[in-house]
Each structure stands twice: as C-alpha cells, then as structure tokens.
Design a protein that fits this description.
heterotrimer, A mainly alpha (469), B mainly alpha (107), C alpha+beta (818), A: 469 residues, mainly alpha, 23 helices, 0% strand, elongated, B: 107 residues, Helix Hairpins, two-stranded antiparallel ribbon, 6 helices
Chain lengths: 469, 107, 818
C-alpha cells in the first residue's frame, strides 16, 4: 500500500496541475483569488513537474529508443511548464513568435497576476514588434483576446505596442503614457517597466532627452536600464542633478545587456569634454544672425535668445517682426518645443487668433464628435473610448505646442466635458473601472495644469469614489 | 533644415541667382534661360547657392520665383529677406540614438 | 503657303466658333466651307442620323427646332443630354462640341493643305474644372493629338496687345461679353510682357440672356393680347426655342437698323388654331431690355477694379470682345460708364481665335504633323530648348548633344542674316547655352552651325530654329480658388485665385474617423472645391478623391495623416492625388463630379427657405433702420425672382435654366449668410460685454488669486476679439469666462441651493422623470438638513438627466478630413 502511495499522489498532483494549466489557458483565474491561485499553481508546478521530469529521465535511460524520445519530449514539456516566463522573454520574443509568446506568458501564472491576459497580450505584441513587416492578421489575433474584458494597463500596453508595430509612433507614445495613469496599486512590474523602457528608448531615438528623463524617472520598479537612461538623459539636458561619471558607470554596470550599449555609454561620458559651439548669448550678433541660428537649430536656448534679440532690436527692424515671430513659432513647433513667452513689446506683432484657430478647430470638432457618440443611444465600445481619449490627448498636445499661451485654457472646456462624461459611462455602464479611474487621473492632472479649481475638486471626488471596489 | 529656414532659402532672388537690383527684364531673361537649361537637364542649373548651403532648383521653383517677383508687393517682401547671414556653427547638441530600440530588442 | 511652323487657335463659342492660324508673321482667320469667318455652334441630326454643323444647322433651328441644338457650351461638364427625336438618339454636350471641332479642323485642313495635329482651344476664364476637362475631351475626340486650353480673356488680350506698340503703359480692360458668359480682365503690358493682373466674370451672363429678355417681352405682349404661353409646359419648349432664335436675329438686325420685326409663323397650336407672332421691336425697347444685363456686367467690372485698387479713370483703354458688344447699346453704355476709350481696329468676333493662335506659338504647339522621316544616320542630334515666341530681344537657347553615331561637334553657333553668335564650346555633358539676338517684330530663323575639334564643319539635327519676336505672355492666372473641403465646413485653400499656372501645392490632413480594412461601403472622401466663399458648402464641388476600405492593406486609424497634392496645368486642368504615409500608398482616382444636383423640386425648396430668411433679415434691418442692408436685400430679392423664372423654365425641360437657378440660389445663400452674420454680431458683442463685466464681479468677490490672474488675461483677449470682430475667437474666450464665473459662483454659500431649485424646476423635462423626482425629494431633505454634500450629489444627478441639445453638423460634402 505505501509503495503505491507516492505514485498515486504523483498522479493526483499531475492531474491537478493539468487542470490548472487548462484553466489558465481558457478563462484565467477566478476573480479576487488571483494571488492565491497563482501560489497554489506554482506550488503544484514545482511538485508535479519534477515528478514528471524524473519519469522522463527514467524513460529516457531505461526504455530504449522510443522511450528515449518520449522521455526527451516529456522533459522538454516539463521545462516549458516549469519556466515559461524566461522562455518567453529569451526565446519567443526575440524570435518574433507572438502566439508562442502569448501561450508561455499565460502559463507564467506567478509573474502575471493580477492581469494575466493583459500581460500575455503585451508579450505577444512585443514579439510581433520583432517582425519587420506589419502583420495585420496577427495583430488582430492579439487584439481579439482583449475583447469583452476589462481594459487594464497590460491591454493598453499591448495596443500601444501594436500601434508601434503599425508604424504609428505618436499613438504608441500616447497609449504607453496612458499606462502611467492607471491606479499604481494595479501596476504590474513588467508592464510598467516595458512601457517606460519603450517610451524612453523612442524619445532617445529622437534626441528628445527631456522626454527620456520624464519616462525613466518615476517611482516604481527599479530596472537598471531605466536608471541608466535616466542618468544619460540628465547629462544630456544639463540637469543640475546629473550623475557623475562614476555614478553613471555604476548604473551601466548593472545592465545585463550592457555590451550592446557600451559605445553609447562612452559617448555620453565623453560628451561633456568636447568644446561647445558658439555660445548662444554672443551679444554682438545682430538680431538677424540670432534669428537665423534659432531657425537652423531650434533649442530652448537659441529660441529664447532670438526672442530676446528681437525685443531689443531697433525700430528699423520692426517690419521684419511679424514674419520673424511666426517663423520662430513654426520652427519651435517642428521640434515639439513651445515658443518662449513673448515680452510685452513683441506681443502686438503676433496674430494669436489665427494660430489658435488652427489648433483649436480640430480639437473642438473631435470633442463634438465624442459628445455626439456619447449622447447617442448606441452602446460605446470601451476600446473606442480609449482611442477617442488618446485622440483628444494628441490634439491637446498640439494646442500646447502650436497655440498662444492662453490657448490651453480655451481648449480645456471642449476636452473636459465629453471626457468627464466618458469616464462616468466607462465606470457605470461599461464596467471598466480601471480605465475610468485612469481617465479621471488624467483629467485631474489637466484641471490642475489649467488651474480650474472646480474641476480639480470634482475629479478628486470622482477619484476617491471610483477607488471603492 | 526647418521649414521656415527652407522658406527663407527659397527666396526668389536666390532661386534666380540675381540681386534685388535686377530689372524686370533681367528677371524674365534669367528665368527663361534657367527654365531652358533645366528642361534640357544641364548640371549647371540644377542647384543654386544660398547662405545656408546649396539648394536644388526645379522648373516649378523658377516659375514660382518669376511669378512672385512680378507682383510688386511680394517682390518687396523678397527684397527685405534677401540679405541674410549664414547660420553659426551649431551649439553643442545632444545626439540621437537612432537605433536604440533595435539594440534593446524593441524592434 | 510656305515652310515654317503653323500655329492653330480655335474659339469654341456658345453661339459661334472660329479658327485662326499664325505663321510667325501674321494671324489669319480661317474661312469655313461656306466662306464665312464664323461657324455657328449648332448641330442638327436628321432622320437618318446625318449630321449638319454650322450655318446649315443654324438654318434648321427655325424649321426643325427639335432636332437642332446650339448653346450647349453652357452645359459642358454636366450630365445633361440633348435629344434628337428624329434620329431617335441623344447626344452629350461633349459629343456636340466634338462635331463642331471636327468641322473646324477640316476647314483648317482645306486652307492649310494638311490636317492639323495640335491646337489651342479657348475656354471662358471662370469655366469650372469639369467644364474645362470636357472641352479637352471633345478636342481629343475630334482627332487632335495635343491640345492646350487658354482662357478667353487671355486670348483676347494677347490678340489685342499683339501689335500695340504705341500704347501708353498702364492697366487696360478686356470686356468680353459672349453668347453665354461674361469675362472682364484687367491687364498690364510691361517690357513686352503681358500680364493678367486680375479677372472676374459671370458664367451666366451673355447675349443669350438678352435674347431671353426679348422672349420674355414677346411672351408678355402675347399674354396681353390674350394668348398666354405656359413656360413650364414641356410641350411648348420647341416653340420657345424658335422664339429665341427669332429674338436673336431681331437683336442682330437692330445693330444695323432702328427697328426690326420679330416674326414667327405657326409658333404652336392655340385653342383657336395656330398662333403667329408678329411684333415690332425698336432700339429703345431693346436698350431697355438689355439695360439690367449690361448693368450687371458693369458691376462686375467695377468690382474688379476696386479689388485691385483702381478706379475707372485709371484705365487706358477697353477692348470689346464678343458678338453682343457690337450692339450700340452695349458699346455706348460701357464707354460712358467706365470712361476709357474703346480700342479700335479689332474684330470682336474673331479676337479670341486669333489670340489662341498666338498663344499656340507661345506654347510651341506646331500644328504640322510630325514627320517620321528618319534623319540621316550619321548626323548627331541636339536637344534644344528655346522660346518659340519671345518678347525679349535677347532670349537664350539651351541644349544638349544626344548620344548617337556620327562625328561629334565640339562647338556650335547660331546664325541669321544680320547676326551670328560666337562659337560656343559644348560642355563636358554636351551642354550649351547661347544668347540670341532677335530682330524686332519678325520671325527669326537661325541656322545652326557646328564644327569639330579641328574646326571642320559637322552636320547636326535640327539644322535651324525659328523664334518669333513679339509680345509674350506671363503665366495665366488661376481663375478661382481651389481647395479641399474640411469636415468643419471650412476650406483648406491650396491654390488661390490669381496664382500663376501651372501650379502645384501639397498639404497634410488628418482623417477624422477610422477606416476599417476590407469593408465595402466604408469610404474616406476628400472633396475638392472651387470658389471664393468661406463655407465649403457654398463652393462648387469639382472632384472627389475616394479611398475605399477594400483598397487598404490594413485599417487606417482615425487621425492618420493624408498628404493631398493638387496640381493645375496652364489651361486649368486639375490633377489630384492623396498619399497615405502609414500605408505607403498613393491614391489617384479622382471621381470627377459632373452634374451638380439641380432637380427643380429641390431647388424650389431652397428658394422657399431663402425667401423666409430674407424676410427675417429684412424685418430685423427695418427695426434697426439699417438702410444699407435693406438695399442689399433688394439685390438678393431681384436675383431670387430671376431664379424663380429660371425654375419655371427648368420644369419645362430647360437644363441650362436649371443650372442657372442653382448657381443663383447658392450665391444668394452666401450673401444672406454674410448679412445674417453681420446682424448677429451686435448681439454677440453685447453678450460679450455683459459677460466680461459680470464675470469680473464674481471673480473679484469669490475668485482665487490664480483665477483673478486668468480673468485679466482672458478679458483682454476677449476685448481684442471684439475689436477685431472675430466671432469664433470671442466665443472661445466667453466660454472660459463662463467657467471662471461658475467656479466663483459655486463658492457662494447659497450657490448649491440656488442650483438645486433651478434644476428641480426642470425636473419634468428630464429623460427619466421618476428618478428625477426621487432626486428632488432627496435634495429637499438634504437642503433642510444643511447637508451640502448630498445636495451636490443630487444636483449633479439632475444635471445628468437633463436632455442634451442635439447638434446636427453638416460636414461639408461628407468630408472625412480635418
């Protein structure tokens, strides 16, 4: 009797484990018991799988060729089930196998709580990114797993990566930034790290180092790569608290894949020691020279210098001002910078209304469309709501960049109204508490930026209300 | 090169290779000559110098330049923005890490 | 009939057409087979389908009006067809124009001894793009391999200014009143360069309108005599056409005599037997009938001058073009009203065709068939570029030696009788640039001499070129602004009116809705419009780029960039393409709009609406004592009456009248729009004033420091907007002011109570009345308790239940881009 007990126990455990795996791959864990379930699952895996592994070894060693093959297969399956996550990141993603990546991520139940499917979608999307050509069918397959489920940070990350796969970097940026707005309590380390990594890397590609710092410097999981990028960004933006050479080196040493980045790292270290070009504040230059310099290389320093030069310019140059100021604004907008605030003497020369019209018009139009769709009797798809939010977010960015200083305030009401309604609809009618909460945070930040007290109070109240489960 | 700088580089006088002292007749003559040379594909006509470097010259640009300079108001604007300095060497600029995503496995 | 190029120009007119040939020395108008200089633009088909064109067809208009049609030029670019019942067939305007062009081509071939391959054909300057395209199609169908189009006023100007050496510099005017259209062009000649400074006109004003006025008068006479003719009855359409022809003849007669007879026998069958028309028309009556139309044309001229900062005394001279300008009434009135001398010595009927021929020289369109005779084997070819028509006495020739067999020349020179150039060495790429010297006012033929490295002569092909010295034309201007209609009913202007052609422009737009992949029926529309008006829906839709879901490799999300390029060539032909960077695909299928929807019923509905709006504007203006607006309203009313008459004729089957009515209604709509906006401005202004003051008080009392700061900035911006009368900017600032006011307001201790009372009073209007009432009850008890939080919650709940106003947004022409 006691001889059979281990075998029976082993069989029961194996059967239980298979049941777990099956459930994981189909519905996901029962709500509210995610962590417990994951723990139990992992425990089962670590007991059942070595048993299976032992069985595999015995077969391989004892039962001849057929047995050897069967044994090898069994061992391989055990390996897969034992360490799915490393297999996903080390093999499925680099090889660009989205479906395999999805399956492995779903199996890695300990890592993936509480948002198993979201993380799996994100993993699959990351694998898809490795494919050079856009693959619409696969993207559709990944997206289909998110249908009818709550939109979580993982799902948003997946959609963002799919947008990047399509080549739509601006949309990807917005979606990945939106991940930050979700309740920090629901943050999954992997999801948040990946989102920040991608954003920081993409910003570094454009040379937008302030954005790199913004993406990499946040509370949360402490990935070495992000810490290093944060340091690099601070160096390149001449920040006051930029790390020293030794500090930056120490950060770099922590990164597992540092060899691929060594030349970049050393270039950053060496950057400070090269001689600078003409100092922008060479006051003997004519306004026209400084203007041309700003147009040729628009940076915050050169733009401010040009504005300064024009404000000090003699009256004889006044006929140049309207075009000069308009050109500076356009050049600034091209690299995503706002024009420095104009001194009072220059303001009459700028026609703010036209510039505002160009950026406010589309925003108001989009706002009206959202409003109409919210008022219509048809049910809104929460994903569509997410994308509408992203569109307005993008249009607001254009207002910040291209409009006059007061333009953001003018854009506030058309943006705030429909999106507040959307947040309510998402929470009450569409059963999307997480997304609604994220949107509310974003609205709160916007209200604070604009300085609308009432809106700030309103959203703070909404936020506390929606945090109740 | 930013768009506003390109607009300045497309000053009709630059395109035609003349100064604001040119008479209407000289403008038309030069324009006709350049159009003929471009049509035939002569190298000498395919670019023009500006304070910001050489720019490619197209037949369309030449026609547009002639049209602009025929209109007195637009000619005046072109004359105002003719005498421009070359840009100074750029200040120390932060680099772009153009293949970072590839290195990190995001592409 | 010597050697040398021949340049052919054709005037395809509403009433008459003509052809002229320029050989480098002089322009000759070509006589047709009947020996006349003018060919009536009329086509007749008999029972067997045999076609008659020109004077013979014109004669049939009287006897067999159902099977002869003229005046189809105004229908070019529409879907209308004209019926020829005897031959049991219909023809499109393009087919009829082709018939005319074929006849003219044959006449020219008879005169020149060869069939011309190329021609320049004139089109009215305000010819909208579909009409221009239709003309080009007709020309190609008539057998021309290459055709360029020229705007009629430009052609007249070229012909009128051709040998005008003694003219003093300054602006001059071409007054072109044709059979169907009126064009006024402001021109300037400087250093031998003719420039069109500006242009205006009316596509529905011409000699035919005078004819119609005569017909109206005749019908009135008949009605007074007790025989009314119903214009709306299609059965009477043929009778009306005969009457129209008779009216035209009487009008022409009156240019020579003081009195003419308007006679038509057996016009139609009345209740008592066949009705004859026999009326006497005198010059005085004709002048009176023509006066309103002439005044309209003068109004256009004055507007044109004003738009360019000129007054009538600034004009040096006026050139009259077109048949109706032969009428003494017209000539005298124009000379008197504009005060400038009328240029003499030009035949108004053939000026356009002569100018077209000169333009053909400018465009180097030699009509001779290209000889395929191979040039001798061992002769090297030069590719040369030079102006065939030059006003500059010192033009340049640019060229390049092409690859081939035979001895290669090292240097080239150009020689004519009295002059030769220096030897020009070919560059490393075989290129050469030589400045020529021309003899003024003549066709200069230069022999091309070439020599090799040893200075021995070498043969080259071609062996000579010809440059005609004379006036040349600056690039013709685009007659109407062209752009893309946006979803907000605004227009993104691509090419402004007056832009020299050819011209091309690209802008980036963004889609406003996502376009799923593979779905039929899902369509992204990019409408292309033409016109000067602010609202896209008031402009004329001339084409659409349509991107269908089936054509996409994958879905196109909302907000995707679309780069649209519009290009117009010298003759006004439009090409459009859309490039979607995200898909890396270029779309070039432009669905050209032919018939704008002009169904009489719809138009009648529009007319009724306009009349209602008119009376509303009038009563407001009356209350305010606004005489300027009232005067402008009279103009609009008059044009609406005209439209009503045209609608009647449209019901009788007159397509031309339908188009006219449609255009008139659109113009009236636009003008009324402007008046309504101007009227509503004082109200908005006053509202703004009150809002600024009111908000100021609230913010002062209850606002935070930051809010007060914001208020002062916004109030300044709002005052600026009031100053600039910028309605939309002012509305935006007012929104912010209201927000500020609300923020301050709700800090008042009683604010929520007041808000509750107001909301409660509207409870019965809520979408969910039982729930609303429940909330009201809750609110009352909360109010008594002094429970602010619950009260706020109740008020917000009530607000959410209130019905929202539905905004209907008519995206202009279903535009899918912003």
């Amino acid at each position: 009797m006691t001889r059979w007990l281990p075998a029976v126990l082993g069989a029961v455990l194996i059967w239980a484990y298979i049941r777990f795996v099956h459930q994981a791959l189909s519905d996901g864990p029962p709500r509210g018991h995610g962590r417990l379930w994951a723990f139990g699952n992992t425990l089962a895996a670590w007991t059942a799988l070595p048993l299976l592994g032992a069985l595999g070894v015995r077969l391989a060693l004892d039962a001849g060729v057929v047995g050897a093959v069967a044994g090898m297969l069994l061992l391989a399956a055990v390996a897969v089930l034992l360490v799915p996550w490393p297999l996903a990141t080390a093999i499925a993603i680099p090889r660009g196998w989205p479906k395999v990546a999805y399956g492995l991520a779903r199996l890695s139940t300990l890592r993936s709580q509480p948002d198993a499917i979201g993380l799996a979608m994100a993993t699959a999307s990351r694998a898809l990114l490795r494919r050079p050509e856009p693959h619409a069918t696969m993207a559709g397959w990944i997206e289909s797993h998110g249908h009818g489920r709550p939109i979580t940070p993982g799902v948003v990350l997946a959609h963002g990566l799919l947008a990047a796969h399509r080549g739509d970097d601006p949309m990807a940026r917005r979606l990945l930034h939106a991940v930050e707005h979700f309740d920090p309590a629901t943050h999954d380390d992997v999801v948040i790290t990946w989102a920040r990594e991608w954003r920081a890397a993409e910003a570094a590609e454009r040379g937008a180092w302030p954005e790199v710092v913004d993406a990499a410097t946040r509370l949360g999981p402490n990935a070495p790569l992000l810490r290093w990028l944060d340091g690099v960004g601070r160096r390149y933006t001449d920040a006051i608290d930029a790390p020293t050479d030794e500090s930056l080196d120490a950060r770099w040493q922590q990164i597992p894949i540092r060899r691929k980045l060594s030349d970049l790292h050393h270039a950053c270290i060496g950057h400070h020691h090269t001689t600078p070009g003409r100092s922008p504040s060479d006051a003997s230059s004519s306004p026209l020279q400084r203007h041309i310099d700003a147009l040729a290389h628009p940076t915050p320093a050169t733009l401010a210098d040009a504005v300064q030069a024009w404000s000090e310019a003699a009256a004889g140059e006044a006929h140049r001002l309207p075009r000069a100021l308009a050109d500076l604004a356009r050049a600034a907008g091209e690299v995503g910078l706002p024009l420095p605030p104009l001194p009072a003497s220059l303001r009459p020369h700028v026609d703010a209304a036209d510039a505002d019209e160009a950026v406010l018009g589309p925003l108001e139009l989009a706002s009206q469309r959202l409003h109409r769709s919210l008022m219509s009797p048809m049910v809104i798809d929460p994903l569509a709501g997410l994308f509408d939010w992203m569109e307005l977010d993008g249009l607001l960015d254009e207002v910040r960049r291209g409009g006059s200083p007061g333009a953001l305030r003018l854009a506030f009401r058309p943006t705030y109204g429909p999106l507040t309604t959307l947040a309510v609809v998402l929470y009450n009618d569409l059963d999307q508490p997480l997304l609604s909460n994220a949107l509310t945070r974003w609205l709160l930040a916007l209200a604070q930026e604009v300085g609308d007290q009432r809106a700030v109070e309103h959203q703070t109240q909404n936020l506390s209300a929606s945090l109740r489960p | 090169m930013t768009v506003p700088l390109e607009d300045l580089a497309s000053n009709p006088f630059f395109v035609l290779g003349l100064t604001p002292a040119a008479s209407p007749l000289e403008l038309e003559r030069q324009g006709q000559k350049l159009l003929a040379m471009l049509q035939v594909g002569l190298e000498a006509a395919t670019s023009y110098p500006t304070p910001f470097g050489d720019h490619p010259r197209t037949a369309e640009a030449v026609r547009q330049a002639l049209a602009t300079l025929r209109d007195p108001a637009r000619r005046h604007e072109a004359e105002v923005w003719f005498d421009l300095p070359a840009p100074s060497p750029p200040p120390r600029q932060a680099p772009r890490w153009t293949d970072l995503r590839e290195r990190l496995g995001w592409r | 009939m010597g050697d040398g190029p021949r340049y052919l120009g054709i005037d395809l007119g509403t009433t008459n057409s003509a052809a002229a040939v320029f050989d480098g020395h002089e322009v000759t108008t070509v006589r047709n087979r009947d020996g006349a200089l003018l060919t009536p633009s009329v086509v007749h088909l008999d029972r067997k389908g045999r076609q008659l064109v020109g004077a013979r067809a014109y004669r049939r208009l009287e006897k067999d009006p159902d099977n002869a049609h003229g005046g189809f030029k105004r229908l070019m670019g529409t879907d209308s067809t004209l019926a020829f019942p005897a031959a049991d067939t219909v023809r499109s305007p393009v087919q009829l124009s082709t018939a005319i062009l074929e006849a003219l081509r044959q006449d020219v071939a008879d005169a020149l001894g060869f069939m011309p391959e190329t021609a320049v054909i004139s089109v009215p300057a305000l010819f909208e793009l579909p009409q221009t395209r239709a003309t080009a199609e007709a020309a190609e169908a008539a057998g021309f391999t290459k055709v360029e189009l020229i705007q009629e006023p430009v052609a007249s100007a070229l012909a009128a200014g051709w040998r005008a050496d003694d003219e003093e510099p300054g602006p001059w005017l071409v007054f072109d009143l044709g059979g169907g259209t009126f064009d006024a062009s402001l021109l300037e000649t400087r250093d031998g360069l003719l420039r069109v400074v500006g242009h205006d006109g009316d596509n529905f004003l011409g000699g035919r309108d005078i004819d119609r006025a005569i017909v109206d008068w005749a019908l009135q006479q008949l009605a007074d005599d007790g025989t009314p003719i119903d214009r709306t009855d299609p059965a009477h359409a043929a009778a009306l056409r005969r009457l129209l022809t008779a009216a035209e003849e009487a009008k022409i007669e009156l240019s020579r005599r003081q009195e003419a007879e308007l006679t038509v026998f057996d016009l139609f069958d009345g209740p008592d037997g066949p009705i004859d028309v026999d009326l006497a028309l005198d010059r005085t009556t004709l002048d009176a009938l023509a006066k309103p139309l002439v005044e309209r044309s003068l109004k256009v001229c004055r507007a044109l001058l004003t738009a360019h900062g000129l007054t009538p005394p600034d004009l040096r001279r006026i050139v009259l073009v077109g048949g109706p300008t032969v009428m003494p009434a017209v000539r005298e009135r124009v000379a008197e009203a504009l005060g400038a001398p009328l240029a003499q010595g030009h035949d108004p009927m053939t000026l356009v065709s002569r100018g077209a021929a000169l333009y053909a020289a400018n465009a180097a369109l030699d009509a001779r068939p290209t000889t395929d005779a191979p040039n001798p084997q061992d002769v090297r070819r030069l590719w040369l570029q030079y102006p065939t028509l030059s006003s500059d006495l010192f033009p340049h020739v640019a060229g390049r030696l092409l690859d081939g067999s035979g001895p290669a020349p090292k240097a080239v020179r150009f020689a004519r009788e009295a002059w030769s150039s220096e030897w020009c060495e070919l560059g490393p790429d075989g290129g050469l640039v030589v400045m020529l010297e021309l003899e003024a006012g003549a066709a200069n033929t230069f022999a091309i001499e070439a020599r090799d490295a040893h200075e021995a002569p070498v043969a080259v092909h071609p062996s000579s070129i010809t440059v005609v010295q004379g006036i040349s034309l600056a690039d013709p201007p685009l007659s109407r602004t062209i752009g893309v209609a946006l979803a907000s009913d605004q227009v993104q202007v691509y090419l402004e009116r007056g832009t020299p052609l050819p011209a091309k422009r690209t802008f980036t737009h963004h889609t406003i809705q996502s376009l799923p992949q593979g779905s039929e029926g899902a369509l992204l529309t990019i409408p292309i419009v033409q016109g000067e008006l602010e609202r896209a829906s008031h402009c004329r839709l001339v084409g659409r780029i349509e991107i269908g879901g089936e054509a996409l490799p994958h879905a196109l999300p909302s907000g995707s960039a679309v780069e649209v390029t519009l290009e117009v060539d010298r003759g006004g032909r439009l090409q459009a393409q859309a490039m979607v960077p995200a898909l890396d695909v270029m779309f070039e299928q432009v669905a050209h709009l032919m018939a704008p929807d002009a169904s009489p019923d719809r138009l009648r509905g529009q007319l009724t609406t306009l009349l209602t709006r008119l009376s509303a504007v009038r009563s407001t203006a009356g209350r305010r004592g606004d005489t300027t607006t009232i005067d402008r309203l009279y103009d609009i009313e008059w044009s609406l009456q005209d439209a009503a008459l045209a609608l009647d004729a449209a019901l009788g089957g007159d397509d031309d009248a339908a188009q006219r009515a449609r255009r008139t209604l659109i113009d009236a709509d636009a003008t009324l729009d402007g008046l309504e906006q101007a009227q509503s401005w004082p109200q908005l202004d006053q509202e703004a004033m009150l809002e600024i003051a009111g908000t100021g008080r609230w913010v002062e009392e209850l606002g935070t420091q930051q809010e007060r700061q914001i208020y002062s900035e916004v109030a300044t911006a709002a005052q600026q907007a009031r100053q600039a009368r910028n309605g939309s900017a002012l509305q935006r600032q007012l929104r912010v002011l209201r927000d500020l006011k609300t923020a301050a307001y709700f800090r008042h201790p009683q604010a929520w109570t007041w808000a509750f009372e107001r909301a409660a009073s509207h409870a019965h209007q809520c979408t969910d009345v039982p729930r609303a009432q429940q909330l009201v009850a809750e609110g009352r008890s909360a109010n008594e308790r002094g429970d602010q939080d619950t009260l706020k919650h109740v008020v917000r709940g009530l607000w959410q239940l209130m019905p929202a106003p539905v905004q209907a947004e008519a995206g202009a022409f279903q535009s899918g881009v912003r």
